Amino acid sequence: MKRDFLAVTDFSTSEIKDTLTIAKVVKHMHRWGDDPKPLAGKHAALMFRKPSLRTRASFETGIRQLGGDTLFFSDAEIGMGKRESVHDVAKVMSRFFDLVVIRTFAHEEITEFAKYAEVPVINALTDLLHPCQIMGDIFTIMEYKNRVDDLVIAYVGDGGNNIANSWVNLASRLSFQLRIGTTEDRQPDPKILENARNAGLSEIIITDDPVEAVRDADVVYTDVWASMGEKDKIAEREQKLKKFQVNAELLSHAKPDVIFMHCLPAERGREVTDEVMDGPHSVVFDQAENRLHIQKAIILQLFGERF
Ligand code: CP
Ligand code: NVA
Fold first, then answer.
1. Whose CA is nearest to atom 5 of ligand 1?
2. pLDDT tens-digit readout, 224-283
3. Same domain, 248 and 198
4. N or C: which end of the chain has fewer CB within 10 A?
5. Which ranges of the chain does DSSP label H, i.e. alpha helix?
6. What φ, ψ does residue 203 adopt, rounded to 5°?
7. Are residues 85 and 15 in the same domain?
8. Of 279, 191, 186, 253, the residue nearest 225 (C-alpha)
9. CB of 25 closer than 6 A to ligand 2?
10. How far is CA 274 from the centre of its chain?
11. How much is the pLDDT for 304?
């Protein structure tokens, strides 16, 4: 049966660990100039309804490095749900492609697409979740910290977005302490939070005190205060979230060897200052590079024995 990767929770704990191992292998092989070609003869479609730099570049480059080929469709070409139903697009895509990668707004659109598609579907970001990003992030954290179990990972800022929700999802598969510093009205999705707490693996603390969130943290992570599709809310969010700005003062409450992470694109001067983005703790460009290797690993994990 075909498998999809729409949420981090589509992989079990051991599959997540395997994916991180595959990412390490393909990263090294790429550096040695020896990319394996398991996707030779495979074709992937990328259907993106929102802008992208890292995600598009990492999928297109990564798939080609593994011997496959990609075709990119912007919303203007397909008009899914307007020009043609989600069902029909999913059926047609399945006749042309071996894999479909989708970036869209409503999460329900990708779940509906995946239901009708006969080939694997990967979530390249929805309003609810950004699972590939969080897989790349935990890969980067492993590179720097070489462990997960006893880490304190502090996410501060907009607690109600796709990145925060994906961190909560990961906390239901791997064990660490997740602290989310955010306001009352920007909490993670309640169902995702309940599932993660029921999983009983990680402690999840939500606080509206930014210092409490980052105190002695191993990782401090932030994201934009208004995501794609809601940029008109930035003035209101800025008022509410400004105390969560990651600046040198806030970062000084974390561990001395803290790493600072941001999925990018960043709005410098808002959720993070230049001094932090460009400072000694920042790993944001390693994080960006690792999207390339984790994307390949997710595809290989997903295809399993289907080659
Ligand atoms: N982090 C990330 O997904 O970046 P893009 O939106 O540029 O793909
Ligand atoms: N939360 C951000 C992530 C971008 C990679 C957004 O959805 O715009």
1. 52
2. 999 999 999 999 999 999 999 999 999 999 999 999 999 999 999 999 999 999 999 999
3. yes
4. N
5. 13-31, 54-65, 75-78, 86-96, 107-116, 131-145, 162-171, 190-199, 210-214, 234-241, 248-251, 274-277, 284-303
6. -85, 130
7. yes
8. 186
9. no
10. 23
11. 85
Q: Decide if 31 is catalytic.
A: no
Q: Which of 30, 49, 54, 103 is catalytic?
A: 103
- CB neighbours of 71 closer than 8 A, spacing ≥ 6? 43, 44, 45, 46, 97
Residue 184 within any structural domain of the chain: yes
* 89 φψ region: left (φ > 0), alpha (ψ -120 to 50), beta (else): alpha
Please tell me whether residues 41 and 184 are part of one structural domain.
no
Q: How far apart are CA 228 and CA 232, in angstroms?
A: 10
Residue 164 Cβ contacting ligand 1 at under 6 Å: no
- Structural domain range at position 75: 8-129+288-303
Q: Is residue 3 part of a domain?
A: no
Cis peptide before 188 (omega within 30 of 0): no
Q: Count of domains in the chain?
A: 2
Question: Where is 175: in which H helix or E strand?
Answer: none
**Based on the domain organization, do 214 and 266 belong to the same domain?**
yes
Please indicate whether residue 103 is annotated as part of the active site.
yes
Q: Is the CB of 224 under 6 A from ligand 2?
A: yes
pLDDT confidence band for 84 (50 / 70 / 90): very high
How many CB atoms within 10 Å of residue 200? 9
Active site residue 177: no
Q: Are 105 and 140 in the same domain?
A: no
Which residue carries 């995600």 as its tokens? 55
What single letter denotes the amino acid at residue 166? S
Output the residue whose Cα is nearest ligand 2's atom 3.
Answer: 227
CATH code of residue 261: 3.40.50.1370
3-class SS at 192?
helix
